[in-house]
Amino acid sequence: MDVLDAEFEKLSCMKDTIQAKVNTAQESAEVIKEDVSAWLDKGKEEDRKRLLVARQNITCFHVCSRHHVSKEGKELLSHLSGLIDVGGKFETVGHPAIWYTATTIFEQFESRVSVHKQIIDVLKDDKIYKIGIHGMPGTGKTRMVEEIAKQAKKENLFDEVAKVVFSQSPDLKKIQEVLADCLHFPFETKTEDGRKGELSKRLTNGKKILVIIDDIWSDELKLEEIGIPPSDNDIEGCKVLLTSRREDVFIKMGVLTKFPIGLLQQHEAWNLFKKTVGDFIESPHEIHSVTKQVCGECDGLPLAILVVGASLRDQKEKPAWDDALSQLNNCQGDNIEGINENLYSRIEWSYNYLKQTDVKSCLLHCSLFPEDQEIPIDVLVMYGVGTRFLKHSSSTMKRARDRTHVLVDTLKKSHLLLEGESKDFVKMHDIVRDVAILIASKVGFLAKTGVPKWPEKDEYESRRVISLISQNIYEPPSELECSELCTLVLGCDYYRKPQVPDNFFKVMKKLEVLVLHSVRLPSSPLNLINLRMLRLSDCEQVSLAFLKELRNLEILSIVYSNVEEVAVEVGQLTNLRWLDLRECENLKIIPSGVIKSLSKIEELYIPHDFGEWGVEGNARLDELNSLTGLTTLQIHIRDCMLLPNVLCF
Questions:
Q1: Looking at the DSSP assignment, which residues form a beta bridge with residue 163?
Q2: What is the pLDDT of residues 451-506, one digit of tens each?
Q3: Which pLDDT belongs to residue 343?
Q4: Do 312 and 393 share a structural domain?
Q5: Are 516 and 498 in contact (CB under 8 A)?
Q6: Which of 88, 489, 564, 630 could form a disulfide with 467 if both were Cys (CB 3.0 to 4.6 A apart)?
Q7: CA–CA distances in Å: residue 391 to residues 285, 395, 401
Q8: Are 143 and 272 members of one domain?
Q9: Contact 562/586 with Cβ under 8 angstroms?
C-alpha cells in the first residue's frame, strides 16, 4: 500500500493547491472553469475511496477480501496518476464573469447568470409557452424576471412585455387593468367577462408578447379567467413567465418548464454583503471576523443579505456588530432594530397559507431542532405519532411515515424546508426557522439554543412544548414546574452530561414526548403515564428498568447511548410499536421473552454489534415469529446457522 499512499498524498497536496487558487479566484468574483470544478469533485471522491480501502484493509481478513483490496488498489493507482497528470496542466482555474448589461446586482453572480441564460434560451423556443421560476422568498425571483424582461426586449425577442403581481389574494379586476395598461390599450367594457375577452384578443393578435405573472400563491385563479390563454394552441408569439415560492403550483397549472432559484454561494454572498455594507468590512480590522459571521447568518439568502447589510451600513464600531450578531443568533421573531419586517411577514404568510394543520405542525416541530442542523425525517415521524399531530395517519407506523413524507414534500415545495444531504433528512433555513419559532411561541412553544443558563420560571411554566438545547446547561433544576407540558426536548453539554434529578419530571403529568440528549438519566422509574414517545441520544446511566411504568409508550429510540442490557421490564411495554436501539455498541443482553412480549411492535432495530442471539439466556431469533405486525426489521446475524427454520414475518 506504500505506493498507493504516496500517490494519495501527492493528489491531496495538488488538490489543496488548486483549491487555494479557486478560493482566490472566487474572491475576485471570477467564474471557475467547469473542468477545474469537475477535477476537484473527482479528487474528493478519491478521498472517500482512500478511506474505504483503508477500512477494508483493517477490518476484512478473508482471503477474497484481501484480493479485492489489492485489485482495487491497482485500479486506484492508475486512476490517481491520471488525475495528477490532468491537475498539473491547469495554468488558470477561472475567468472573469461575463456580466449582462443590466445593472441589477444579482446579474453579477454565476449562480444567477446560468439560470438567466437558460430562461432566455427557452424564451426563444417556439414550442414552449409557459415557464416557471420558483424559489424561497427573498432569493431574487422578482429581480430575475425583471432582468429577463430587459434582456428579452434588448434582443427584440418580444414586441411587448406586460408584468403583473398576483400576491396572496389576487384581485381579478386589478390584474386585468394592470395588464391592459402595460399593453397600452383601454378596456371598452366594464364586466369581467368583457375585459377577459378583450385581453385574450389582444394577446392573440399575432404580436410577440411576454406576460410575466409574479408571486403566484395558488392555481385557484385560472389564467383563462383573466384573459390569458391557458395553452399555446393557435397562439403565435405569446409566452407566459411565472414566479412562485411553491413548485407544486406550477405542477397543478401544467407548467412543465421550471427553473429553481437557490441560495447564493458563499463567496457570492460575501461579495453582495460587502457591496451593500461597504469595503471597510474587508480590511484587516477587528470587526472583520464578526462581519463574516453576520453575513453567514443570512445563509446566502439575497434579500436577507441586503436587508441586514443595509441596516448595518453605517456601523463601523465592533460593539454594534457584536450586538447585531447576538440578536441574529438569538432571534425569536422579535424586531431587530433597523431591519425591515417584510421578510418575516412574507414567510409567515407562507406558513399561514398552508391548508392542513398537520403540515403546519410539522413545520413548527422542525423549529425545535438547532439552527443549521440536518433534521431526520424519522424523528419527525416520531413527533407526529407522539404528539398525535398526524391524527388518524398515526394508526400504523407505515401510514405515519408515508404521511410525514407527504408533509415534508409539501413544505419543501413551499420552500419552507430545504433538501438535506440525503433523502432521509431535510434542513430549515435560519430565517424561516426564526419565523417559525415566533409563530410557535404564540401557541405555547418555547425553543432556545445556546442559552447561557436555564430560563426563568415565568418564561416556561405555562408552555406546552419546550426545546432547550445548550452546551451551557450543567445542572437542570431539581424539579421542572411545568404542569401543561406535553413535549420536552432537552440537550446538554455532551462532555459533562449533567445528571437529571429524580424529581425533575414529577409535575409533568401531561408529557407525551420526551427527547433527551447528552444527560445522565435519573435512577428512579419515570412515572409519566401519558408518555408515547421517548428518544435518548448519547445518554449515560441508561438502565431500562426505569421505563417499566410507561405503559402507554409507543416509540422507544435509544441511540449512541451506553446501554448494556435491555431490562426485562421493557417486555411490559405492551403498547410499544417502534423499538430502535441502533448504535448502542455496548448492548450485550436482550433477555429471552422480551421481544416476544412486544406483540404490537411494527419496527424493530437491533444494533449491528449485537450477536448474542440465544446465548446465555438471550433472546432467540424465533421470537420474531410472534411479532405478527412487524413491517421493518434491522438486525445483524453473524452465523446463518442461528436462523430458525421458518421465519413467519
A1: 212
A2: 778 888 888 889 999 999 887 777 888 888 889 999 999 988 767 788 888 889 98
A3: 63
A4: no
A5: no
A6: 489
A7: 55, 8, 13
A8: no
A9: yes
C-alpha cell at 187: 378596456
Amino acid (1-letter code) at residue 283: S
Same domain, 242 and 292: no
294 shares a domain with 155: no
- Label residues 605-642 b or e (16+ Cβ within 10 Å = b): bbbeebbebeeeebbbebbbebbeebeeeeeeeeeeee
Range of the domain at 278: 266-329
The answer on 226 and 129 residing in a single domain is yes
Phi and psi torsions of 289, nearest 5°: -65, -45
Other C-beta atoms closer than 10 Å to the C-beta of 256 total 12
User: CA 498 to CA 492: how far, in whole Å?
Assistant: 7
What's phi and psi for 121, nearest 5 deg?
A: -60, -40
Neighbours of 225 (CB within 10 A): 16
CATH number at residue 277: 1.10.8
Number of domains, the chain: 4
414 inside domain: yes
- For residue 238, the model assigns a pLDDT of 87
**What H or E segment, with its residue span, contains residue 77?**
helix 63-87
* Best CA proximity match to 559, nearest among 629, 615, 606: 606
176 shares a domain with 147: yes
pLDDT band, very low/low/confident/very high, at 25 (cuts 50, 70, 90): low
User: Considering only CA atoms, which of 31, 36, 44 is closest in space to residue 97?
Assistant: 31
CA distance 165 to 88: 52
**How is 398-455 classified by DSSP, letter by letter?**
HHHHHHHHHHHHHHHHTTSSEE-SSTTEEE--HHHHHHHHHHHHTTTEEEEES-SSPP
Q: Is residue 123 domain-shared with residue 250, that is, in the same domain?
A: yes
490: in domain: no
> Mind listing the pLDDT tens digit for each residue in 587-597?
888 999 999 99
Q: How confident is the model at residue 106 (pLDDT cuts 50, 70, 90)?
A: very low
The pLDDT value recorded for residue 400 is 96
